[in-house]
Write a sequence for this structure.
């Protein structure tokens, strides 16, 4: 099978350093159309095709059209739209491709979102590791402003909007909304309690609408989709297409745009070229380090929100990690836990202490010194973390462990040996 090209249709079609090249292929036509429409008609369009947030917090299943309309309804001056480009989830790099291959579309999308929300400023918060793309985006912002797409009275309308680019310092936790906002404000990137919710009091205490790169990038394409190509793709309630990134022990790791309903088998064995040297799959992790794991029995499951959830995993950030038979489940979990032990900000006790103690117990298991009580305690800590941590990092850090306990129970039989 071949991946589709709705969201990626501009890739390779224009010079990403020249706004004129983008305009020649229809760039900013969506913005011109949007400014002639009522803002709520745009959010209604997005809602009609059931676009859900494309960030790692897919478990909330938050409708993007609803998010934009709710943000518009909030009373307040100098509203803000933030594009979350802090793509820190492991095995996830689809937003990177959208930034690299279609930067002007992202700028156009943020402007349209600003119009819908009634914002005056947009912020792009980009992960530190994407520093090489700063010149590309700064150039796109500068050229958009010089051509009248940013600034005062955009395209002669009563709409003023500017975009600012911020870079993080490499903290995974800054992918969480409140931590990201504190980082923009110049403070330590640590989550805060809610309420107040971001939409009421976000960056610099201004009403804020926070969206992912992919979520925003869809908008200009939808506005120009007269043939309803997007709505014709997908399966069930999962309408349209999805950007995914496949990594691990596959022959062709990379980013693909697929219609919802493509099976996991088609993704791994056709798009990603199959497992290296035809080895057997040990496990597949969906949605990055904070995602759940499955075994080969999931291969014929359609890639939709509903079907993956029913199979015990989730779409999440769109990352798919394929691990072959050379790596044991325990070694994979230890690697994953090493990541979270390093990335926890340490602010809340369940996450700070929980990650440390789970790491110690997994190490004891690897040394063959763990007891049944250790395994029981580890499961208890993981569940407490998921229920009582301050932010999404602590809440989801043990998704892989808890799901592995269900899928691979033999791994946790103390004294047993894994094949």
């Amino acid at each position: 099978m071949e991946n589709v090209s709705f969201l990626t249709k501009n890739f390779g079609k224009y010079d990403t350093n020249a706004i004129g090249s983008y305009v020649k292929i229809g760039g900013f036509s969506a913005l011109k159309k949007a400014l002639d429409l009522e803002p709520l008609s745009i959010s209604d369009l997005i809602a009609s095709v059931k676009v859900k947030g494309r960030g790692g917090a897919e478990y909330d299943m938050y409708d993007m059209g609803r998010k934009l309309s709710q943000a518009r309804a909030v009373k307040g001056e100098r509203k803000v739209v933030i594009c979350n480009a802090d793509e820190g989830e492991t095995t996830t790099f689809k937003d990177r491709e959208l930034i690299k291959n279609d930067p002007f579309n992202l700028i156009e999308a943020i402007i349209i979102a600003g119009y819908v929300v009634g914002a005056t400023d947009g912020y792009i918060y980009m992960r530190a590791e994407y520093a090489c793309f700063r010149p590309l985006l700064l150039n796109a912002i500068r050229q958009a402003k010089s051509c009248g797409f940013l600034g005062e009275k955009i395209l002669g309308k009563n709409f003023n909007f500017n975009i600012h680019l911020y870079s993080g310092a490499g903290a995974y936790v800054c992918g969480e909304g409140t931590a990201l906002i504190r980082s923009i404000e110049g403070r330590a990137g640590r989550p805060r309690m809610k309420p107040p919710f971001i939409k009421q009091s976000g960056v610099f205490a201004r009403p804020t609408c926070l969206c992912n790169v992919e979520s925003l990038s869809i908008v200009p394409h939808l506005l120009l989709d007269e043939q309803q190509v997007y709505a014709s793709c997908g399966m069930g309630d999962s309408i349209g297409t999805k950007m995914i990134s496949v990594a691990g022990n596959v022959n062709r790791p990379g980013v693909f745009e697929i219609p919802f309903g493509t099976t996991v088998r088609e993704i791994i064995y056709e798009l990603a070229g199959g497992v290296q040297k035809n080895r057997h799959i040990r496990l597949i992790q969906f949605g990055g380090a904070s995602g759940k794991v499955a075994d080969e029995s999931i291969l014929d499951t359609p890639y939709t929100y509903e079907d993956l959830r029913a199979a015990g995993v989730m779409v999440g950030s769109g990352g798919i990690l394929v691990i072959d038979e050379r790596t044991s489940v325990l070694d994979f979990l230890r690697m994953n836990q090493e990541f979270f032990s390093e990335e926890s900000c340490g602010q809340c006790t369940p996450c700070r202490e929980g990650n440390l103690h789970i790491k110690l117990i997994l190490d004891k298991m690897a040394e063959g010194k763990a007891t049944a009580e250790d395994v029981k305690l580890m499961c208890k800590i993981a569940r407490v973390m998921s229920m009582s941590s301050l932010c999404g990092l602590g809440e989801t850090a043990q998704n892989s462990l808890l799901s592995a306990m269900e899928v691979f129970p033999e791994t946790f039989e103390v004294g047993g040996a894994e094949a």
User: Anything to note?
Assistant: The chain has 17 helices and eleven strands. The radius of gyration is 22 Å. The chain has three domains: 19-229, 233-324, 329-412.
